[in-house]
Write a structure and sequence with these properties.
Keywords: Carboxypeptidase, Hydrolase, Metal-binding, Metalloprotease, Protease, Signal, Zinc
GO molecular function, one term: zinc ion binding
Mean pLDDT: 87
Structural class: alpha/beta
CATH superfamily of the largest domain: Zn peptidases
Radius of gyration: 22 Å
Organism: Adineta ricciae
Order of helices and strands: HEHEEHEHHEEEEEHHEHHHEEHEHHEH
Distance between the termini: 77 Å
Number of domains: 2
Oligomer: single chain
InterPro entries: Peptidase_M14
Shape: globular
Family: Belongs to the peptidase M14 family.
CATH architecture of the largest domain: 3-Layer(aba) Sandwich
């Protein structure tokens, strides 16, 4: 019986193994939509449409069929990893805690990827430290399936706001990161932005002026369950960790747990193929709009703030990667959000000035792909300014483990695994972009 059990576990591991393939086609046809329709459990990790190149994470069961499709299209492929979980395995042992500063604005708090518990302790320090306690309010807006808190950090100042001589209530800016578990850089950058607002509130005239008109709300870690799972079990995990109909039916396949939170928002939910109905898909939309506690908590928080004060005016959504500045709509290529021209002009100007034209600006459904139930589409229904930053690295010369001369780098990787050294680099760039964008809004509409 022991031998049978061992064999069963061995074959189960083979069936559950996910492979990373680099795929290239000779033409620029719409290969991606065809592949995603034919292979509903496939996960797109990287792509370069101009080069017709893709990197996919796919289950073992897809290999034969995908190989046949590639050959029929005269394409080529190379296997980058036969078992992604083992190739980029995360040690189950937590790293030893380093001794951190009593100053919550110390750089040590944004030079690393913290655990969830460390992150919560830092936020409590922000609220209790003499340096920041008068500026910080913490809002626990909900709990996850695994009973972790969703904590929004509010930066509030008493700088007087006057328009035409009258004192006015502030409006609000909402920033979030960590919606997809494996996108650790977005968590680090959200924390960096929060710290920079606090550090520069008096010394930087633009930051000071922005804080006169807006309170800043930051949710750095929207998917703490998935984030912790990606730290301890599967570095490329994307979804949250709530059970699904398939996970309850057969617990053998861990991919059948969780929902893609950025397909679960209650606007245009399930309106295009970019959100999967299959519970084992990496882009599973959930059983209904806002079915996930993380999404429901954010939706309720943002809607509640619409009724009381402050009213949310702009939303900056942080993801990784590709270096894109994405504007709504995401769900369709046939329509544009009403104020698209203004969004595009403002975003392009800031991207050119601050980012040296290395960010591509445009409608999300065109620059990436159509998908429904996204946070920026939902936010756009009641905020004038909603956008997504896809952080570093850039999609160029795919895959990252192939040099331009086509030699193979055997230490190849994918962009989700970018290290903590990029937090300050990307954080500084995104912070400056947000400041320039908001300062222009203040000058145009509030002065």
């Amino acid at each position: 019986m022991i031998h049978i059990a061992v064999l069963f576990l061995y074959f189960l591991n083979i069936l559950q193994a996910e492979h990373v393939w680099f795929v290239k086609f000779p033409s620029k046809d719409d290969h991606l939509s065809h592949i995603e329709k034919s292979f509903p459990l496939i996960d797109l990790l990287q792509h370069d449409y101009n080069d017709s190149s893709y990197v996919f994470l796919l289950p073992s069961t897809y290999q034969t069929k995908l190989r046949r499709l590639i050959h029929q299209a005269n394409g080529s492929y190379r296997i980058l990893s036969n078992n992604a979980r083992n190739t980029w395995k995360v040690s189950p042992d937590r790293p030893k805690r380093s001794v951190l500063s009593d100053n919550p604005l110390d750089e040590s708090y944004y030079q690393r990827f913290p655990t969830y518990d460390e992150h919560q302790e830092w936020q409590q320090l922000l609220q209790s430290s003499p340096q920041t306690q008068k500026l910080i309010r913490l809002h626990t807006i909900g709990q996850t399936y695994e009973n972790r808190s969703l904590t929004v950090v509010q930066i509030h100042t008493n700088y007087p706001r006057r328009i035409q001589g009258r004192r006015k209530r502030k409006q609000a800016i909402y920033i979030d990161g960590g919606m997809h578990a494996r996108e650790w850089l977005s968590v680090g950058v959200a924390n960096y932005i929060l710290i920079q607002f606090l550090l520069l509130r008096e010394s930087d005239p633009k930051v000071h002026e922005i804080l006169r008109h807006f309170d800043i709300f930051v949710l750095p870690m929207m998917n703490p369950d998935g984030y912790e799972y990606s730290r301890t079990h599967n570095r490329l995990w994307r979804k949250n960790r709530s059970p699904t109909s398939h996970s309850e039916f057969w617990n053998g396949d861990q991919n059948c747990y969780g929902v893609d939170l950025n397909r679960n928002f209650p606007y245009q939910w399930n309106s295009t193929y970019g959100a999967s109905s299959h519970p084992c898909s990496h882009s599973y939309r959930g059983i209904s709009p806002a079915s996930e506690s993380e999404v429901e908590s954010v939706v309720n928080f943002l809607r509640r703030q619409r009724i009381s004060h402050p009213k949310f005016y702009a939303y900056f959504n942080l993801h990784s990667y590709g270096r894109f500045w994405l504007l709504p709509w995401t769900y369709t290529m046939l329509e544009r959000v009403t104020n698209y021209d203004e969004l595009f002009e403002r975003s392009t100007r800031v991207a050119n000035e601050v980012m040296n034209q290395t960010y591509r600006v445009g409608q999300a459904s065109f620059l990436l792909y159509p998908c429904s139930g996204t946070s920026i589409d939902f936010a756009s229904t009641f905020m004038s300014h909603a956008m997504t930053f896809e952080l570093s690295p850039i999609f160029q010369g795919l895959p990252m483990c192939v040099e331009q001369n086509k030699t193979v780098n055997h230490g190849c990787t994918v962009g989700f695994l970018i290290g903590p050294e990029s937090i300050q680099i990307d954080g500084n760039e995104i912070f400056k972009a947000i400041i320039e964008y908001l300062y222009a809004l203040v000058q145009d509409h509030f002065v």
